[in-house]
Amino acid sequence: MEYQIKHNKIVFPINPDFNIYDICHCGQLFRYFQNNQSTKIIAKNQIANIFSDNGEIIIECSNPEFFVDYFDLGTDYSAIKSKLNQNDFLQKAVNFGAGIRILKQDFFETFLSFLISQNNNIKRIQGSLNRLASDFGQKVGEDFLFPTPQALKGVGEKYFESIGTGYRAKYLSEFVNNYDESLFERLKTMPTNLVRDELMKFLGVGQKVADCILLFGMGRKDVFPVDTWIDKVASEHFGLSGASRPDMAKKLVKYFGDLSGYAQQYVFYYKREITRKNQEKKL
DNA sequence: TTCCAGGGATATA
DNA sequence: TATATCCATGGA
Q: Which end of chain A has a smaller Cβ tally under 10 Å, C or N?
């Protein structure tokens, strides 16, 4: 995507390949805050305010290079979408969530976020993560950055229970106390299947959580995380009814190849939002 | 009140 | 290897 960096801003024309509402609501990040005027995203130790003005999208931040990478601005999403459009269901999903981008999020933050996510709902995940940030993250103005691994060293199960993570508190405590900064460096050049095996050695990490960490925290697109929503779609629209979730993931990756991660996000967002809107109609 | 949420650990066969 | 049960908790 064509963009310009001006002082503390990234600027580009409003276009169909970037929609901040789609980006925030497609379930890949949890620490976003929206009002009528703008959207604030806190990612790792960086803060961005995103708004539109005079036909342009403006991403205001102190570190533009960080957010050029974060929003994956170097990737041509039009090309990806036109390939996915060859599938009928994907065409609807892509049309619905046309402004999605797969964010390149921090490994440690993604790991913690998706440990909390299992058998949980997005509202509660957001609440837990924001309480974690306000208790252990650096304060910048009225905001809190995501806590560093060092800041969370020694934090116990009781604390994680107190921020509403339920039975996952044990997983979180184990992770922050065993986390080694060299982990990401060790994994980042390994093949996806081997990385998945390594991630699944952590308590509380199964294939789905591992695949989310691979997709959102390691930039791997050859994964298709299968959660309850993807399970429904795979059963209803891809002829995979009755298959186990790992089997669904395997078949979906075989079909979508290196575009799997993108396809998964469009499908997840579409299915979840359509279901939510249908439920609102019934009220 | 019951069901569900970006599932996984554990026990059992 | 495959299936059944249990796990905290807030929202609908």
A: C
| DSSP secondary structure letter of residue A215 | I
Strand B bases, protein C-beta under 7 A: 4-9
Q: What is the pLDDT of residues A204-242, one digit of tens each?
A: 999 999 999 999 999 999 999 999 999 999 999 999 999
Which tokens belong to A122? 């997005």
pLDDT at residue number A277? 81
Contact A222, A258 (CB under 8 A): yes
At A18, phi and psi to the nearest 5?
-145, 110
Alpha helices by DSSP H, listed for chain A, are 20-25, 64-70, 77-84, 88-96, 107-117, 122-136, 149-152, 157-162, 169-178, 182-187, 192-199, 207-212, 228-237, 245-256, 260-282
Q: Residue A215 and residue A82: Cα distance in Å, rounded?
A: 21
Q: Which nucleotide is nearest to A224 (CA to C1')?
A: B6
CA of A33 to C1' of C10 (A): 20
Q: Answer whether A259's CB lies under 8 Å from A83's CB.
A: yes
Nucleotides of C under 7 A from a protein CB: 2-3, 7-12
The residue among A62, A79, A83 whose CA lies nearest residue A9 is A62
